[in-house]
Design goal:
Layout (H helix, E strand, L loop, with lengths): L1 H9 L16 E5 L14 H12 L5 E2 L3 E8 L2 E8 L7 H10 L7 E7 L7 E5 L7 H10 L5 E6 L9 H5 L8 H32 L8
Helix pairs in contact: 2-6, 3-4
């Protein structure tokens, strides 16, 4: 019911999904998170943190709207669209679908950056396809794209919580002791994005998942 209401609110021709202009994009890079100050620094918002880092690194400014926050960027002659769905996690897939359709970006050129409970803090894993892994934002993207054939960059946040406390954990903030590892992971995730754009999914998955991409710095 809520999904149907949300679809009606957005509308088929909502101008928000025209805000990236008439450009052609090679990739759609999506950072998952929840909107609002309450969630800004929480573990569940690691996808937003990565996009914020990239925007700052390349001196890009987000365009803010009701349903998406976005910026565009040329990296090494590749034209990219970066998007934070400005809606709650469970509905993330709707704007991803709208943007992929509007700008004719094939699903295999969609990268979704999200938090991952099953990995320790700092671990990154890049893959294509597979299940949602219990992540509601990824599940929404799968549902709306009607395929699992898109890339995911999973950012480890650990799982140091008692049974029944998962929601409080993912919606909690990183501790002061975790800040150094968090900053390294965000920087590494941004490097993953650049490497993916330059060398393609196969080489990027090998370099990221083996740790070879970071071996000289970590």
């Amino acid at each position: 019911m809520l999904k149907n209401i949300f679809r009606l609110i957005i509308g088929k021709s909502n101008p928000e999904f025209e805000m990236l202009g008439e450009n052609k994009f090679e990739w759609l890079i999506v950072g998952l998170g929840n909107p609002g100050p309450r969630y800004e620094k929480t573990r569940h918002n690691i996808g937003w943190m990565v996009l914020d880092f990239i925007a700052e690194k390349f001196a890009c400014e987000f365009k803010h709207s009701m349903y998406i926050n976005s910026f565009t960027l040329n990296i090494h002659e590749h034209h990219l669209a970066f998007v934070k769905p400005n809606i709650f996690m469970n509905n993330s897939g709707e704007p991803v679908k709208r943007l992929a359709d509007r700008y004719q970006i094939p699903t295999e050129r969609v990268l979704v950056i999200s938090d991952e409970l099953n990995f320790p803090l700092g671990k990154l894993h890049l893959r294509s396809g597979g299940s949602d892994g219990g992540h509601n934002g990824v599940a929404s993207v799968i549902d709306k794209l009607e395929t699992t054939n898109f890339l995911r960059l999973r950012c480890g946040i650990g799982n140091e919580f008692e049974t029944g406390d998962m929601i409080d954990y993912v919606l909690g903030e990183f501790t002061p002791e975790q800040q150094n590892d968090l900053e390294k992971m965000i920087k590494n995730a941004a490097e993953c994005v650049e490497y993916l754009i330059d060398y393609g999914p196969s080489k990027a998955m090998q370099a990221v998942n083996s740790g070879a991409l970071f071996e000289n710095r970590i």
